[in-house]
Amino acid sequence: MPLRLCLMKIRSAEEIGGTVPDQVPKPSALRVAIVRAAHQLLDFPIVFEDPFALKILGVAAEDSLRSDPLRYNTPLLKALRASLVVRSRLAEEEWACSKNRGVRQYVILGAGLDTFAYRSRDQAGGRVFEVDLPETQFWKRGCLRAAGINEPESLTFVPMDFEQSTLAEKLGEAQFCLDEPAFFSWLGVTMYLGKDAFVNTLRFIASLAGGSGVVFDYGVTPGLLSAGERAAVELVAARAAEHGESWKSLFDPASIAEILRSQRFSELKEFGPEELNDRYFSGRTDGLRKSGISRLICARL
Fold it and tell me: Is the domain 3-300 a CATH 3.40.50.150 member?
């Protein structure tokens, strides 16, 4: 199927009646949530198990998705799905590693409809901070109430616009301990930020106590992509721009590593598509594979 037709499938996901409250302030968050939910129905074995992925969408959207999940199995959506589920699983695995090292603060930047805080059974002694735009959090909490999903006491919502405020300011107002280490999950956000906002976020994380870290994904500069990957990036970015979410930053791996080292991150783990496919998709027969249009990296102090 042509890439443009595949992308029309993503657009149709936003038009499912009754999925969420009437106003959807962050279309990308809804698209990600729908694709993550489709993974629970389409793929076996499941790479990223999320029992709330369907429920948080609402009854009507869940029923619609269950009635015809194959509409989300086009080549482009399959590649997108692989990328989304791998980044979520890797982030939670890296958080588990940090927690084993004694870190007790987990910050999810650009949380969208992420469900970690609601399904995790091991929050003893730790806190989860969800950082996102105020209107996005208002919408999400309406989704949670409609789905009957309780907000755990270990969770704190931190409303913030990355381009207008600083993490130090907003987390400092939210019971976050600035003198203790923390681990940050930063998925699906960096491409929407200018370079200054990107670097300032890393600088703040680097200012925290030793043992702090971050995992994030980033869009790869077109010169490092195949012709097909470049076409996919252009179309996805164009669709995002139509909804007021323009892509602002793309990087190459060498420049990302240089920025991280300049901010005193000493432990860097880069995850390219080959490594991720070997680690999470080896032996599959359904064609679920991670493309090279985005990469993941974990960095710790």
Answer: yes
